[in-house]
Design brief:
22% strand; 2 domains; five-stranded parallel β-sheet; elongated; four-stranded antiparallel β-sheet; single chain; Rossmann fold; 222 residues; alpha/beta; Arc Repressor Mutant, subunit A
């Protein structure tokens, strides 16, 4: 993960760069708004930390121009200006978070992680598709060839795991540990029983198999 840091105060910048490096982040750094904007437009970064009172171009303008250029990475404002008006201005400019100086490393890192997690979750597709089979992971609705398939919770979880691992062979033990959430018991046939029931609903009525047995290993959906 790369973090863009735009901060003109050298002491603060050194502190930020060291803390981010210690936390395992790659960084790119600019000491004024003009260079920061140029770097932000030309570099790929996962999150930005922007001071407001910058030379050349102020932080609010930097954020506005990055957003206007289609840069959607989270942007965190760091500023000694902590009035409500300043915070509102920062958020209206396109910032995702506003931290007033002084701040703690723990607070900064927690905010970075929260923003990165939000972006990751929002980027995840809500509909998974293999051939004519579709799963809406929000509503937990399953359709094939446009026809609704009613599945009980465990069979839905089993199908979703197979779809998320489409074209990859999954073993019986992987299914036990990830769907049933307990260790594999070689004496049980619970996996085979549930897969058989799932096939009756997902494959049999449609004339084409998607769930295939890999003899002696497990299953693959493709």
């Amino acid at each position: 993960m790369k973090i863009l840091v735009i901060e003109d105060d050298k002491k603060t910048a050194d502190f930020l760069l060291r803390a981010l490096a210690d936390a395992g982040y790659e960084t790119c750094y600019a000491s004024d708004g003009a260079n920061g904007l140029e770097m932000g437009l030309s570099e790929d970064f996962d999150c930005g930390i922007v001071d407001i009172m910058l030379p050349e171009i102020d932080g609010f303008t930097v954020i506005e121009k990055l957003r206007a250029a289609g840069k959607n990475a989270p942007l965190i404002v760091l500023s000694a200006k902590s009035s409500l008006d300043d915070k509102v201005h920062g958020l209206h400019s396109g910032a995702d978070c506003y931290l007033a100086k002084p701040f703690s490393v723990a607070e900064l890192l927690a905010n970075i992680q929260a923003q990165l997690r939000r972006v990751t979750l929002s980027a995840e597709p809500t509909v998974l598709t293999v051939e004519d089979l579709e799963i809406d992971i929000i509503s937990r609705k399953v359709t094939r060839a446009g026809k609704l398939i009613d599945l009980p919770p465990l069979e839905y979880d089993l199908l979703e795991y197979l779809v998320r691992n489409a074209h990859r062979v999954v073993t019986r033990s992987m299914l036990m540990e990830n769907v049933w959430e307990y260790s594999f018991d070689p004496s049980t046939n619970i996996v085979e029983t549930r897969v058989c029931k799932l096939r009756e609903k997902v494959d049999k009525p449609f004339g084409k198999e998607l769930i295939h047995t890999v003899r002696g290993i497990g299953y693959v959906l493709e």
